[in-house]
Amino acid sequence: MSEITPDTVEAHGFTPEEYARVLEALGREPNLLELGIFSVMWSEHCSYKSSRFHLKKLPTEAPWVICGPGENAGVIDIGEAPDGRKLAAIFKMESHNHPSYIEPYQGAATGVGGILRDVFTMGARPVANLNALRFGRPDHPKMKHLVQGVVAGIGGYGNCVGVPTVGGETNFDAAYDGNILVNAMTVGVADQDRIFYSAATGVGNPIVYVGSKTGRDGIHGATMASADFGDDIEEKRPTVQVGDPFVEKLLIEACLELMATDAIVAIQDMGAAGLTSSSVEMATGGRTGIRLDMDQVPCREEGMTPYEMMLSESQERMLMVLKPGREAEAEAIFRKWELDFAIIGQVTDTQRMELVFGGETVCDIPLGPLAEKAPEYERPFLSREEYAQWAKIEPLGDLPEVTDIGADLLKLMASPALASRRWISQQYDSQVGADTLQTGGDAAVVRVHGTRKALAMTTDCTPRYCYADPHEGGKQAIAEAWRNLCAVGARPLAVTNCLNFGNPQRPEIMAQFVGCLQGMGDACRALDFPIVSGNVSLYNESKATGGGSAILPTPAIGGVGIIEDHGAMMTLGFKAEGEEILVLGRQNSATDAAIGQSVWLREVAGKKAGAPPPVDLDHERQVGEVVRKLIQDRKVTAVHDVSDGGLVVTLAEMALAGRIGAALEADPDSDGRAFFAETQGVYVVTVPRGTSDTVGMAAAEAGLTCERLGTTGGDAITLTRSGNDANSTDAIRCSVSLAALREAHESFVRDWMDV
User: Fold this and answer.
1) Domain 570-755 is classified in which CATH homologous superfamily?
2) How is the beta sheet containing 289-293 ordered, strand by strand?
3) CA distances (Å), 698 to each of 20, 408, 574, 622, in order?
4) What predicted TM-score, i.e. pTM, was given to this entire model?
5) Total Cβ atoms within 10 A of residue 35
6) Which of 21, 312, 321, 739 is the most buried (most CB within 10 A)?
7) Closest listed residue to residue 439, CA positions, set 125, 95, 128, 78
8) In this predicted model, what pLDDT tens digit does every residue of 441-473 receive, in sequence order?
9) CA-based nearest residue to 590, from 705, 671, 684
């Protein structure tokens, strides 16, 4: 093998101190294969060396949590099926950011494939995919190409594999010009007595490789994902994997068929770092060792070396430990599904990774230093006060008056921040499987097949809040997911996340990371909304030509909740004319407390200023519980939470969804900015005429406000000054037709994509 030089060590991403630890762990100099294995296992992407210290502080337990962080995905109890089976939801979110910038179609497609495997490797049948996408400025020369490629990749993989893509979010900001974010989430359902874990046990048990053959694609993908982008982006193209959704579909069915037997001891997908990571994690989890015969690894290219085999991230591959004597049974299943099957090793009691090639031992590494004893850093970070000085967030100062609410509303609805994403969602098959009950609302809802239950799911984050105040932004990301689940009638159960940040060696970036995690932890504890799985993606920065520096701090949140009877599911569209429109949970009328960092402030006033709106977690929980009870008791007909764009955008979205207008009233002295304030913990609901007292009493009992805004009806959103003669000219503050709203809302993406 090649000689290990300082350049070789540096090329594998080691600091001098880390390489010294490798020498200490081995008691000798590694060969190139061993160096490569240490490189990927100690990469930021696999070891979480800059984040583990802080991740340990997050709340991960609740009575309904079956398995928290540490396995392929999180597992929660969702109750019984009619036939008595105890059911579980299994879900996770992961990133595929760097590959998607380099090669958008395959980067996004293999991101979907990888997260699917994380879920079905635990015994779940995937029932839904979601995503959280962040792109740069629409007028950036690469951005249209990136959006088209990513969307095509997500649709191309998810549609072909037969799992519906039911929800997600897409945002634009110049901070993502040189480093887009592609976060993928999968939710699956399993029987609680058929959940599979990754710990390899049973000395002498056979280790089998199934799925696709190993190629040279994706080598050093984990290392590439653990570094900033430079000017050599195009040279990294070979590190991007290539996926085949049709093979993934076969792999899902073959694995689930074998899982219906009792032949499997442990199972792990080959994701980041491929065969290396999967084998190390299995052996480490079982406190055992592993011995692999590299000559038995199925390869699709001639002359592949053990280095290439161990570091390849070729897609659609799994590693299993079987019970002795069950090999032929398992092989028959995988051959039937036209997939590779090979016995490539066995479990040992050495707690070492031993690799044999051509009859010789080519790797012999103790497992402890590879995994549990990998480097862990407590990176320095700025205090909250120091960060505020660094971020230089301007105070709100003097704000312009809102002279034309209707004109501002139209401008917001047409902006990239709030414009319809229908062109994107139409690229995805949301109905395959025939269990999708709702898309495009506050949360997607998918029926649990064969039951009256449904799972609600959402992805949420407001990066501009997180930049202005990481702690408050972290709280808001969790609260927004909680709110969206409550708005469809679901009881929020648990969270997965994808923590996207810049270079952790910069104290200001670590301040963002630590602050967001502290806020997230506070919100999860206050809302009984534990984090059961997730992913950390650091070094999301670009020094490439045309790119910016670090992305905005983006702790994307995936929330999952349960609706016991999907007949009670709520949607956001107005349902009938003449219904009363109420707003629940407004705590005070201090507009400026919630206008900072708002979409209105950026798109209309042209300012990025002020603190983000504060999140009162006790209030958030109270109002969410009241809304869920009202939905469950069939007291409300439409529900939508107030978020980006404020109250008037919430009403516009409800009107467009229901194709019914609204006649609203406002205090004649009210500040027009109040309609655009992004006040947290607020919902708009509709009720049949004459029943608003029921909602008012429920709110009063909980100590919440309930205000009447007006009634549904007509083909426009009209705002009049309360107490004035409705026929007088100065009574009308705003009148925007639904046709004009719809045209504004649809125009941005339609015109950009020339469709």
Assistant:
1) PurM-like C-terminal domain (3.90.650.10)
2) 264-269, 317-322, 206-211, 340-348, 289-293, 352-357, 360-366
3) 65, 34, 21, 11
4) 0.94
5) 22
6) 312
7) 128
8) 999 999 999 999 999 999 999 999 999 999 999
9) 671
